[in-house]
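[job 0412] stage=fold_complex status=start
inputs:
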Amino acid sequence: MLTVIKGGTIYDPANGIDGEVRDLYINNDRLIHCPGTEKHVDHIIDAHGMIVMAGGIDIHSHIGGGKANIARMMMMDNSVPERLNELDVHHSGCKHTVPSTLITGKEYARLGYTLCFEPAVVPSNARQAHLEMADTPLLDTGGYLVLGNDDYFLKLLAEKSDSQKLRDYVAWMLNATQCIAIKAVNPGGISAFKFNQRKLDVDEPHSHFGITPGQIVRSLTTAISDIGLSHPLHTHCSNLGIPGNFESTLNTINAADGKPIHLAHVQFHSYGTQGKRKFSSAALEIAQAVNSDPSVSVDVGHVMFGQTVTISADTMAQFRTKDFASPNKSTFMDIECEAGCGVVPFKYRSKDFVNALQWAIGLELFLTIDNPWQVFLTTDHPNGASFTTYPHLIRLLMDRNFRNDMLSTIHRGAVEMSVIKDISREYSLYEIAVLTRAGPARSLGLKDRGHLGASAIADVVLYRPDENWDTVFRHPVLVIKGGQTIVKDGEIIHIPRGRTLRQRVDFDSGIEKDLKPHFEMSRTTRLSNFKISDDEMANSVGSDVVYY
Amino acid sequence: MQLVMTNQKMYRFLDVVCPFCGLLCDDLSLQNESDSFHIDSSNCPLSKTSFLEASTRTALKPRVNGKFVTRKTAIQAAVNLISNAELPLITGLMTDVAGTRNALTLAEYSHATIDQYSNRAFGINASHIQTNGGYFTTLSETRNRADMLVLIGPQMQKKFPRLIEILDFSNPDNSRLKRPRKIAVIGEPCEEFATIVEQIDVSASIECDLQQSGHLISVIQNQMEKRKDRAPITHNFSNSAIQSIVQALNQSDYAVFVWASEEFSFPLGDLIVDSIFRLIDVINQSRRAAGLMLTTTPSTTTANAVSTWRYGKPLPLSFRSGSPEHHPDYYGWDSIINRGDTDLVIWVGGLDHSVEMPDCSMQKISLSSRDSENADVFIPIAIPGLDHDAHLFRTDLTLAHYLKNLHMNDGYSAAETLEEIYSQLKC
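[job 0412] stage=fold_complex status=done
writing structure:
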């Protein structure tokens, strides 16, 4: 099946194409070079006047796993039934702060996204995360494995085990859980909270294991580098949400010792203590650190105003915010000596000084980090806001007048404390394509994703230009996934099953000799049952594995 | 799970997952000998009996109106009944993730109401999460960190025979902890628990009617908060025992409260769960504590997990309006049958070795691994994990196990059977 998309204006940063009118050729599920005039074209899509980009990639969005399900249960009053009536599919769901799986897939597809990464897969919960993501159609998915709070790793570190053993453990766990990257959430802090420590600075020892978050970051970044993972340590830094935490963030960068590091939802980690309220923006300090070090990347975790629910493995931080819960309820879970989970509903208010400044800090980060390849567009769904707000966020980045109009609606004190009003930068379409496609794909080592060159997976989105960038990005004209049209004029017309992306890793299988007794003594599951195989993924979970 | 061939006729399965209680113990060793399976690694009476019964069950045949028919005919009869039903009810749901997925799809297509057989007890916990949240823990976390265990309703020992063993509380001097572990027991003891008590150090035991336990827990909370203005000691609770519990909680690093909400299946039983979480909240202001909820059948946690991610809501769900609606009391399977609000009951079994399809006057379809003589249409199905691969969720809502097929019996799974029915309904 040969399809040609004719005359679209292409924005494909991975191939250096910035708004050039070109034709694209799709052979089955892949993009190809122009096949020559002798080849029969089965289908022609007229894209004249359209903006054409690769399918969107969300590098950090909580779409699967036990915490999402707890959030769904807690926010049931906030849910609205939603159906896919336009198809012969008898599946409905609920649309709310954490949508049900089918609706998640549908909403992402309607925004032109075709690939999404769950950034906090707790090892023992990996199977559930994959089961949920397999029930999220229209999207390919992947998971980041949470390490750095698990007893086994902390014990290895405390015993000063050699780096080879740490490396093998990290690689083994990644392999066993079918994940693509490693995430550290409040390194050591979740574990420390279980030992009743309520705060843990980057250089502060864990009361039981005696090691610091800095040591954990250093050893994990080293292990990741040794294993050869594409994506650097995906780091949720220490002291999330605490005024003055930008120093923890800078210290975390330093702890990586020059090795690549990714800072997740960095907006929540860019707070100072200036001003009469002792809460200020430290976005410029963080941006300066990113601008001066190409080995650092960030996703922003932008805040939007309205009701949401915060879900995180960082029980220590979530417990700290429980008194701000709205509505007033919260759930915490200590999980399998590996990690935790905290679910706290939250309402961001534009007239609240702190919330308004959080909103401004996110924009400051976007607008002051110079290199778009070092910053990715996220709201840390659902923590800062739902992913469905992305078009609005893109408009804020691309339209200074709109941004200033919005600025006039928020708490005045926050406006005074922010430098946004003085920033004239407006993102270009090319840069938006970097933030939402090319950048995430490159960071994750996905050579056939996030671009429109020959041999790429044919995930292609056509947008109709409009003065309002929110309208442009909220209503793609056409979304093609793997060569098949899945969305046409906002309607879902085909529902393909997604696949699971992961990276192939090597390790010394001798690590199992040490792990087996650990599983038998300390865990309540056997090692052989813990591992998720490719066959299980394909035949029972319902998602084929794709290796990178 | 691993398979070892011991000789040409005997197989040994290692690390087998037991699907017969919510703990999903996965360390069983099974010997296959003379067409039966024996557990030789555990003394769990529940799993020993259940595996033996399952491995020696007789092959069942499909029936329609009491007469043996082919599977194809039985499927067609089921399709006809569902097509003609106005208010179908799918219940039982003693199945795995795949079975639940397909049962939900069928429910949505046929505008049915769907509920899991043991869901009313689970609903007590689900309701608390919805309205208040709470503090939860898991089996490994309890095994490794808890230095204080408060068992509320020791009858749970009957349904979770290996609970104390899995939590490693039969060993008071756990080397991973700073101090010897303590157990407090609230409720009516049972014979099974008394046997265990002989082996472990129970620092305090308060025998009481479980209906009073919520009040007792409030008393403990008040003592911990040093409040004298609330809830005076009543019901002849032993003050010294209460003081022992309070003292132990005040000294503990990680206290875990354990209950099986099935034990609270009486009016206002949910208030006991509320009082447990209030106490845990008070402790967490200065120390650490959490709750470990036990659910008897893994299919209950499984069905609710799948329902919540697929539809944003736990069970029961009704699709009568075309969209998922969740009203636990109104759409509970027993409420619907009791008020005659259904004309067709579709029973989905598999792990229903100890429960029977409800006896009611409505037309009935039974997909089950045990015979259902009172069903209009009976289609035998396989047992998850024993006859086919299966995913089941453990009681702590965190860990899903993958149970690999032991090939005890041939037969179609619930998922396959439901898929066939759904496919034919769509034609």
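[job 0412] summary: Chain A touches chain B through 63 residues (CB under 8 Å).
[job 0412] exit 0
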